[in-house]
């Protein structure tokens, strides 16, 4: 896949997942983490994933 498509996909995932990481529902936060892991090659996705490591729910942190 061309790099430009990967970056667009990562930007879209980040724009959708970023608010979901703060959602009160743990399932929404887990889904956000799952979406971001597909784009962990980008710095922005890694930074967002780093915030999930302090989530109160162990399933989100996993």
From TrEMBL:
* Name assigned to this protein: HEAT repeat domain-containing protein
Which source organism? Streptomyces bluensis
């Amino acid at each position: 896949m061309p790099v430009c498509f990967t970056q667009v996909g990562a930007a879209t995932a980040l724009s959708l997942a970023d608010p979901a990481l703060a959602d009160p529902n743990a399932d929404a936060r887990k889904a956000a983490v799952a979406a971001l892991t597909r784009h962990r090659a980008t710095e922005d996705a890694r930074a967002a994933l780093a915030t999930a490591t302090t989530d109160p729910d162990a399933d989100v942190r996993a």
